[in-house]
Amino acid sequence: MKYLKNKQAKSLMEKYLNGKCTVEEKKLVESYLDSFQGDTGRNADIDFKLDIEQQLWEKIKAKTLQTKKTKVLPLVYRNMMKYAAVFIGAGFLLFWGYNAYKTDQDILNADKKEIVLQTGQDQKSIDEHTVDEIVDESGNVIASIQNGILQYRQNTKNGDFAFNEVIVPSGKTFQIVLADGTLVHLNAGSHFRFPVGFHPSKGREVYLSGEGYFEVAKDDSSPFVVQANDMEVTVLGTHFNVSAYLGEPQHTVLVEGSVSVNNQKTDSHEIIKPGQKAVIKGNGMVVNTVDVKDYTGWTQNVLTFRDELFPNIIKKIERRYNVTIVNNYPELDNARFNGKFKNESILSLMNTFKESANFEYKIEKGKIVINKKTSL
């Protein structure tokens, strides 16, 4: 599919944008374009790319009658724009070959930080290609790293266990299997501190700043406790998501089982059920029923916005893509959006928002700068 001839690709895309494709042609075009999704090595020269994008956006807008003056904007252009953005990359490939491409990271001059494992006084950088063993101060192997997962070994000795810490920068996610078998997914911008082993009589306690999805190994004799800033979550064995970024609302979403969520400022607590979200608010907590996929999709590279204010969306985008966004259009601060993105490039995502929210943006000194649209 990737090697459609230039004329064939252009002809099919024109029919796709004009709604004239047969069912078979539509499947062919979308399969062809999906094959380029996430291929960050194939973004075109920025000036050329943005010029062609604008032409495609205008075609799409001319064929879309959806109003933009609603309180919650659903990003109605997302699918077509995703494919249009990918077509640009594919078209440029057909015209110019592989050599002229820049990644989004190159365009934005983003600082490519690595995941860091802190063990005592030592630090180790980790990426998806790292294959290594982790040893303690006595030279004993306590963990291994392979296929992007850090896995600790079960240890039944009754001594005092040291703590390790994993720091996940923006633009990255990471997985850890703790010594008890608990699987932890860490989101971008998170710090996670945990013991290399668990003492049978001392419980299981870990510390999180950021966001983590926990699949806790069941142990009726030893509660698993997550200390997350002002929030304490206690379980025996269950699946749940904890979000505790500094300066943002702290919450826990339960997927299965049962958890107790405690507001440590006031020692108030709630026991929540699967499908519920507990949010720390003031001196207590608020519990709501939610779609858990909206809060756990990040573990599958899905970025979801559900009736969210634009400033909160900016924070999520900055963490996910390791970028800096400057918003010079304050009217957007009170706008709310719905949307779901999977494996989109940052430029494809920004173009979708640009059309739904009717703003302009530019890349300036390695930052994304949003401005009010000045032209019709």
Written overview of the protein:
Strand 18 and strand 19 form a beta hairpin. The chain folds into three domains: 6-108, no CATH class; 115-290, Jelly Rolls (Sandwich), CATH 2.60.120.1440; 302-372, Phage tail protein beta-alpha-beta fold (3-Layer(bab) Sandwich), CATH 3.55.50.30. The model is unreliable at 35-55, 63-71 and 76-101 (pLDDT under 50). The chain has an 18-stranded mixed beta sheet that branches. A three-stranded mixed beta sheet has the order 1-22-20. It has a three-stranded mixed beta sheet with strand order 21-24-23, with helices on one face. Helix content is 25%, strand content 35%. With 376 residues, the chain is α+β, with helices and mostly antiparallel strands. The longest helix is centred in the first third of the chain and has 19 residues, at 78-96. The protein has helices at 6-17, 23-34, 46-62, 78-96, 104-108, 293-296, 310-321, 346-357; strands at 72-73, 115-119, 122-126, 132-135, 141-146, 149-152, 163-168, 174-177, 183-186, 190-195, 204-215, 224-228, 231-235, 239-244, 251-256, 259-263, 268-272, 276-281, 284-289, 302-309, 325-327, 336-342, 359-364, 367-372.
State the distance separating the first and last CA atoms. Answer: 37 Å
Structural Rg: 23 Å
Total strands:
24
What can be said about the biggest beta sheet? 18 strands, mixed
CATH class of the largest domain: Mainly Beta
- The helix/strand class is alpha+beta
CATH architecture of the largest domain: Sandwich
Morphology call: globular
| Whole-number total of structural domains | 3
Mean pLDDT: 79
CATH topology of the largest domain: Jelly Rolls
Q: What count of helical segments does DSSP give?
A: 8
Tell me roughly what share of residues is in helical segments: 10-25%
Determine the strand fraction and express it as a percent band.
35-45%
| Low-pLDDT ranges | 35-55, 63-71, 76-101
